[in-house]
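The passage that follows is intended for readers who have already worked through the single-chain material. We present the inputs for a multi-component assembly, then the predicted structure in tokenized form, and finally a short commentary. You are encouraged to pause after the input and sketch how you expect the pieces to fit together before reading on.
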Amino acid sequence: MLDHEYTTKDVFRENFFKDWRKEMTSEERSIIKDLNKCDFGEMNAMHKAKVEARKYMTKEEKQTLKDANQKIVDEFGYCLLDHHKERIGNFKIEPPGLFRGRGEHPKRGMLKKRIQPEDVIINCSKESNIPVPPAGHHWKEVRHDNTVTWLASWTENIQGSIKYIMLNANSKLKGEKDWEKYEVARKLKTCVDDIRYQYNQDLKSKQMSTRQRAVALYFIDKLALRAGNEKEEGETADTVGCCSLRVEHITLHDKLDGDEYVVEFDFLGKDSIRYYNKVPVIKKAFKNLKLFMENKEPGDDLFDHLTTQKLNKHLSSLMAGLTAKVFRTYNASITLQQQLKELTNKMILSYNRANRAVAILCNHQRAPPKTFEQSMANLQAKIDTRKEQLALAKSELKQAKKEAKSKDNSDPKALVERKKAAVKRCEDQLLKMELQATDREENKQIALGTSKLNYLDPRISVAWCKKFGVPLEKIYNKSQRDKFAWAIDMTEEDFEF
DNA sequence: AGCGTAACTTAGGAAGAAATAC
DNA sequence: GTATTTCTTCCTAAGTTACGCT
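Having made your guess, compare it with the prediction:
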């Protein structure tokens, strides 16, 4: 709690203190004037003690707690949609707390207020059992809108945005949407060559806006960048996507490390995750970028004649349902399929390799685990131990061979065979551990989950599993199998994305 | 045509649970 | 059995896009 990095940030502290003072009585306000003089040590200790106590609960106590939680899920975690009982994704209202925006968010630390029934809109069908508000309270509104999928909503006080209660990913509704998403991406596959040809032509257009659109599309396609909507300054962290790139985010190199026309990207994207990449691009795109940057300041928009609306409008004219993000889905899925074809080694590690290629493409990063260095060192130590064992086993084998020749042992060959097997076993284990070490090292900063869950057509993975007899459980855990139930049902081993 | 907002998907970190090491 | 590591779930912030309004 107190030891979190947030508490050391000035913006967080200032925002918190300002909002806290608003909550104080006038008497408190006259006493508590300086956050630096406040000591939350006692509260922190209490919180820590609670966490500690949880750890040392008996099995029975833990079970009691679990049962109580399950009861809550059973009662509130489901709804009836089109006569089907469906799991709700987030059925609990968000509790009050201090806002934890990502990156340099100007609002971090602000007080996120408690939501009252009076703030909540209920959306259900007229003839359903309308949920009863807590005693003495009423809902903000009860409506019956069957054109939307949310069950309840409220407006959050930090950004003024609407929050929704919606169905779980394993629901029929979400599954159908997911399927549709991948079908649109597959449709793009059939016309992507034409679209690429088109934007290549557009790079030479006389219209500035067309040229900018073409370069942006080239980036979105080649690098899987996000669309990049405009953001209100001062309301959120300063992050960008393709269309909102500024001059300061790219550096042009006529030549770099033996490549020509290299663009160096360095910007903060969604969730303030850094995108850093040096990419050789086609000459036409490069020349255009030079042109776009002429007479501009570092803080100016690179694509000043382009918005995501214009881009998406153009895309939808090329293919029904086509938007910028479809390229991310398409490129992610097609990359997985290609990689799986190339990595013929039908092992889970090669699947992870393919998955990783996609995660790198989409720039899905994670903070290296806190214990990463330590656990890597531990693994290395195990490898070293095994190496010693291998050396020992080898010398024993040598000895055994020698003895088999010199002495008339009753069964000299058996001993040699045994020692040989021991060497083999050692070598296998060593190889396995070294592979694991490589895998882990390569995964240090890469998050595989996001692409698996949101970008990779599950039918590719299901087909791959069937084709090579890999159990699906090796690829997808329980909740992932639930989410992708639609794909598991329908996919044969010859599925082509 | 441009803009604001509602609705929905995508995202990484924290917390909790399970597996594995010691 | 206990400690540590790894996997899974939960949480909610932060994006994208469609749509209605002017």
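Commentary: Residues 54, 100, 102, 148-150, 153, 161-162, 164, 166, 177, 181, 226, 270-271, 273, 307, 309, 325, 364-367, 378, 447, 449-450, 453-455 of chain A lie near DNA strand B (CB under 10 Å from a C1'). The two ends of chain A are 46 Å apart (CA to CA). How closely did your sketch match?
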